[in-house]
Amino acid sequence: MWSVDRLRTDSGTALVWFIALTFFIAMLALVLFSAIDQFLFARALTSFSEQFAVSAKTYALIEPNQSLELIGSRLWAQLENTRFWLDSVSLESGNTVKVVICGNWDSPVDLVSSSRKICEVALSR
Q1: Model-level pTM?
Q2: CA 116 to CA 38: how far, in whole Å?
Q3: What is the pLDDT of residue 4?
């Protein structure tokens, strides 16, 4: 049988479980927020790399005498982007411009302090 004394000793255990569950959900939300931010950063880097590759290919078609490295460095100098850096620009199989652009992603959440170098490759024919 349940006695009144037993119910008095169990009071407060639900509060401990509630606090633990709230803490777990908060940590899960912060990790999820950090993962979503990293995914969006990579998408922005991909989009930027593809646009840069198309621009480099366009300039290479307009000025066929210029080297691709020079075209890439001139294009990069016109940009005011400090989040990313140009890793390489090359010509693949005679026609295709290959651009590698990298960036450092830092977690926006202090509890999930993480930093990662992300590089994207874009091709333009």
Answers
A1: 0.77
A2: 9
A3: 55
